[in-house]
Amino acid sequence: MDRWYWCDASLVSGEKVETSANGIRLYDGDKKTGYDDGHLVLTNQRMLWRHESKSTSLGLHLSLIVLIEEEAGGFTSSPKLVLHLSQPPHTQSAGPVASSPHSHIKLSFKHGGCSAFRQALQKAIGERQWESVNTSIPLASKGNQGRSAHTGILGIERAIQAKQKETNQNISRAFEDLKNLMGLAKDMVLLSRNISNKIREHSGEVSSDDTVQFRSYLLSLGIDDPVTRDTYGSANEYHHHLARELAKALEQSVEEAGGVMLLSEVYCRINRARGLELLSPEDVLNACQVMKKLALPLIMHTFESGVQVIQTATLDQKKVMEATMEVLNRHEMDGGVSAGDLARECGLPLLLARERLLQAEQCAEAVRDESSEGLRFYPNLFFSRA
Amino acid sequence: MNEFQWPWQYSFPPFFTLQSNADVRKTQLDAWCALVISWGKSNNISQIDVAETSSLPVFKNPAISRALPANSIAVVLDELAKRGNLEWTDKTKRRGYLLWRSPAEWGQQIYTWAQSTSRLNNVCTLYEITQGDDTADQEFHCLDGDVLLKALRTLEVSGKAELMDFGDNQGVKFL
User: Fold this and answer.
1) A310-337 exposure pattern, b = at least 16 Cβ within 10 A, e = fewer
2) Strand pairing partners for A376?
3) Which residue of B has its CA nearest to A361?
4) Residues A69-78 pLDDT 10s
5) Per the UniProt record, which residue ranges are transmembrane (chain B) (predicted)?
6) C-alpha to C-alpha distance for B32 and B27, rounded to whole angstroms
7) What kind of fold does domain B103-174 have according to CATH?
8) Average pLDDT, stretch B136-163?
9) Cβ pair B19:A368 closer than 8 A
10) Which tens digit of pLDDT belongs to each residue from A93-109?
11) Helix (H, G, I), strand (E, B), or coil: what is residue B19?
12) Are B98 and B42 in contact (CB under 8 A)?
């Protein structure tokens, strides 16, 4: 409310009236004020509010308006506009309220016209005419129009350029709105989290019906409540479907790759296959985690080191080990096998080759040799020769 | 003395890396203990100074450019100590006796020698036992003085010998 300032109703140079509305009450934040039943004028620079009986007006500069929201009316309440405002400049003249804790005001439209006014307001803010009003006079803009009316290639090019500029502006403005929306969404998520925590704390007092209902509200808002995510987590229907799709799409490729594929490669391949409807790494991971439960031909396996792979459910570990040992035995006499060597000989990703060697070591089939030449592996002669 | 025959493990590079698999590691340590003992025996090494272990030929094989790292050497020495083949001279574990035979075994050997050369009831100096011409063909020839004393003490405890002190020289009387 402290953004309003006293002024008279006369317009300054370059200012022109866009629209007006009657029966407007001002709110400071969500609080009603005594400024009721006034006449609201929108110019290309300001909003002016004046009570019928008074001679002075209240002014609000459009440059202070950050975001406009519309609040639908009900049986007992009129439709309202919520205006989120930025800090007023220090040079601003005195207003009815010296300082206010709220950074938004509301305009209540008793006699309707809320939406129309909002559109006009949005347009006025979008055009930002107050920026040019001090530098350019109406005559000059007329001259501009005259020039752009030139025909010929130059004229067309100019028109295209102007159009591009406008599009750019529109886009950046759209993103500005998006930013605001994101800011608000963050608050929303916080709020929902608070509420759901409360529900959990008082779970004795709130029936499970209430909880379910609340969750459905949140979901209908499109906000994924973290708590519900934990609850359903990997078990949710979406991931089941995704798991089936992954298995179907990748089964053959995994088999061709020797029965094992790194999760990172799975992620790349599935997204490549999908083209546009890209998946997040988290969704892929979640989907892979439920594969085992769904008895799909592919399952996820996590090595002790944390490396995660997708492998065919029928993969014979013994055969894999035999293949690894075959390579190890071949190089028993010429300096052992490093992960890189195995990767080259078996056509495996390096990470996977390393896992195979470590696995062989774990089964006491291979022994390690750590030296300045790096980590190499030999067949376990300690057992076989002793 | 014959040239020491290195076991096959000595030229197997993984031998010089302490294995992480518990079973393999146990087998590896067995091999290490056996190697250190047989090497000590062959080179008549009876004392090991931990600070110098890394320069001992047994712990490194330049032919395959491998050496057992210091902390792994410590593991091997600890294992030897656990098996009774190494006895630390003090609690800081800086030096230890490498006992490729236990003192009691040495004592028995010396006593058998004394019996066979009819030295019972006679007094021998310790120098005589380890350095004398009569023992040149014995295993305890050149035995470390401290280890010899330990061996003789075990004889003393079982009543087969009596240690004597001649001031600057020590002797033993076999009973």
Assistant:
1) bbbeebeeeebbebbbebbeebeeeebb
2) A369
3) B21
4) 888 877 778 8
5) none
6) 9
7) Arc Repressor Mutant, subunit A (1.10.10)
8) 81
9) yes
10) 777 777 778 888 888 88
11) coil
12) no
CB within 8 Å: A378 and B12: yes
Cβ-Cβ contacts under 8 Å, B10 against chain A: none
B8 closest CB neighbour out of A378, A383, A385: A385
Rounded (10°) angle between helices A281-289 and A237-256: 90
Separation between Cα atoms, residue A196 and residue A184, nearest integer Å: 18
Share of chain A above pLDDT 90, in %: 4
Nearest to B17 among A335, A364, A368 (CB): A368
How far is the C-alpha of B22 from the C-alpha of B24, rounded, in Å? 6
Q: At what angle do helices A350-362 and A339-346 cross, to 10 degrees?
A: 110
Residue with tokens 């809320």: A114
- The CATH H-level superfamily of B8-98 is "Winged helix" DNA-binding domain. Chain C. Domain 1 (1.10.10.570)
Read off the tokens for A168: 């750019």
How far, in Å, are A252, A266, A272, A370 from residue A276 at the CA level? 22, 16, 8, 46
ipTM of the complex: 0.73
B11 inside 8 A of chain A by CB = no
Fold assignment, A317-384: Arc Repressor Mutant, subunit A (1.10.10)
- Residue spans per domain, chain B: 8-98, 103-174
Q: Which residues contact A338 (CB under 8 A, 6 or more apart)?
A: A374, A375, A376, A377
